[in-house]
């Protein structure tokens, strides 16, 4: 088996020594070619070209941004070529997609799990989400968000460019700061799904492909606890954004059961094939923790059994 190992050298939770250990372990089992990312979407370009270069497997080491790039590259494998399988190793601060697959959060332990899966021939097909607009056509692995969370992602990216390290504490601090300053209150969003009345007046809307939505350290955050890779999309929208409601919902998100399907101050959707989120004016938008800019409308679709994962 020929494998392409895509490494993000800026991965926040690995060191050159640990990366060498991982490469050595994998190279004992497959014919391995190692490539480092050099610029944004480089991982996607390499994944897209992997089939044409004769690779049967793509392995990545990086965070959720690297995973998103690789997945989008693999889903754009040229027609007529067999798409390689994919194995994702954690190298970021959250690794939401990888943890949701049940892969260990430690990269060395994750490598052992992936190698065991390769030896036994274990794999699974996972569904993905797809977004489309006049400017976009991309897949997401675990979430897409309008409003508050996208604004937080944007600010964290800005601080990272100034030298700050991404961490759950940084995301939490930025989110709290924006909430206390009143920068999150904007009930301009509407969610529409086939066969259901539109829901307007939402401050914040999140679409998920699995649970959890994110990790606060080792704690999963679950606004859509029924979301699964094998189902359609789930969504969560907040219609009330005051301190009491937000504190109550945050407590439920951090609980083992997550947020109930219905309650005061929010609306949920479960296992839908498609939905549209629109806004009265452009709002921040993100997928898989990557800020895409502002949008006033986005169509989202479930793509069942989109990708084969070694796990």
Automatic annotation (TrEMBL):
Keyword Kinase: yes
GO molecular function, one term: kinase activity
Residue ranges constituting the DAGKc domain according to the UniProt record: 1-135
Database matches in Pfam families: DAGK_cat (PF00781)
InterPro entries: ATP-NAD_kinase_N, Diacylglycerol_kinase_cat_dom, Lipid_Phosphate_FormReg, NAD/diacylglycerol_kinase_sf
Keyword annotations: Kinase, Transferase
Obligatory cofactor(s): Mg(2+)
Record-stated family: Belongs to the diacylglycerol/lipid kinase family.
Protein name: Diacylglycerol kinase family protein
